[in-house]
Amino acid sequence: MLSLEISLFKLYLPLVGWVGLGWLLGYGLPKRIPNLFGKFLYWVGVPVSVIGFLLGADLSGPIWLAPLVAWAAILLGAGLAYGWMRWQLSLAWRRPTQGSFVLSSMVGNTGYLGYPIVLALVGSQYFAWALFYDMLGTMLGAYGLGVVLASHYGDSTESRWKLLQAMVYNPTLASFLAGLWLHDAALPPLLQTGLKAAAWGCISLSLVLIGMRLSQLTSLRSVKLASVSLGIKMLVVPLVLGGLVTLLGMTGAPRIILVLQMAMPPAFATLVITEAYNLDRELAVTSLALGSLSLLALLPFWLWLFPVGAT
After folding, report:
1. For residue 202, which of 45, 133, 186, 288 is within the disulfide window of CB 3.0 to 4.6 Å?
2. How far is CA 65 from each of CA 53, 108, 258, rounded to the nearest angstrom?
3. 171: exposed, middle or buried (Cβ count in 10 Å: 0-12, 13-18, 19+)
4. Is 27 contained in some domain?
């Protein structure tokens, strides 16, 4: 129990601290600053972090299971959301609301939020599991299947191909491939140290950015529907698939990484897609804010149920 408390303290201190700082800065800075901040992290910060952490990551073992579990989580979340809507026919769902409900139930913030949480709890040795989950699961699910579903439920104001290009030309995907290529390269020690230091710095900046963006969310309505989608995304899916991978023999760090990635709140990509396809922005915004707060309460439960040190 003591080790669990220490792990949570080590996580919550920077998580709450950096996000809280970003929240305060978001209220005091011009609105264009978070956008510039986000562009810097998108084009420079996160790609550098990916390369830096991949240099010391363990790529051995069944790491290919990470994207398979990611897709299982995406499809299970979408299926449960669709099943709930069919069961609640009396609610007379509007099509844009259906689209936002499904999106919020299927893809999580496994990059900006998932990376620092995994690194704080497990360390960089198994970071590749989180990275494979995000790159080959969440990103493809959001800008692939997510775009298809959004175009089905919504009224597109932006070309579907433009959103798909956002996936293909994603600099993080390029850095992911570069990091795999450089993984076994004999880089100068000073360069490796610099990359790792820059990677940790950018992780802190990504938490600040999350706080800035949360400070700009002004709507917390649609709480009832958001609670259902978050229950699917952050509770039911991790419980079901976490139990399944345990039955299949997975334990320890890889298991808790997959569970935590499945349990992340909805991704900011869901808001991007929602706005592009005129879905229910109020529901998307409420799910983002409520999910981010719920994560703090759920983390101790996941660490207790799927302990990091289990063998």
Report:
1. 45
2. 19, 18, 9
3. middle
4. yes
Contact 153, 102 (CB under 8 A): yes
Which pTM value belongs to this model? 0.88
What number of residues does the chain have? 311
Rg (CA), the chain: 19
Q: Is residue 288 part of a domain?
A: yes
Q: In this structure, is residue 311 part of a structural domain?
A: no
We report the CATH number of the domain holding residue 76 as: 1.20.1530.20
**Cα distance between residue 230 and residue 80, in whole Å:** 11
Asked whether the beta carbons of 269 and 242 are under 8 A apart, the reply is no
Q: For tokens 């769902």, name the residue.
A: 93
Q: Which domain holds residue 181?
A: 2-305
Selection from 246, 256, 232, 247 nearest residue 80 by Cα: 232
pLDDT per residue as tens, the chain (311 positions) = 446 676 777 788 888 899 999 999 988 888 788 878 888 887 888 888 888 888 877 888 899 999 999 999 999 999 999 999 988 876 678 899 999 999 999 999 998 899 989 988 888 888 899 999 998 899 888 888 888 888 888 876 556 666 666 666 678 778 888 888 888 788 888 988 898 888 888 888 888 988 888 887 776 668 999 999 999 999 999 999 999 999 999 999 999 999 999 999 999 888 888 887 889 988 998 999 899 989 999 999 999 999 876 54
Which residue is it, tokens 């990470």? 66
Report residue 285 as tokens: 């915004």
Total number of domains constituting the chain:
1
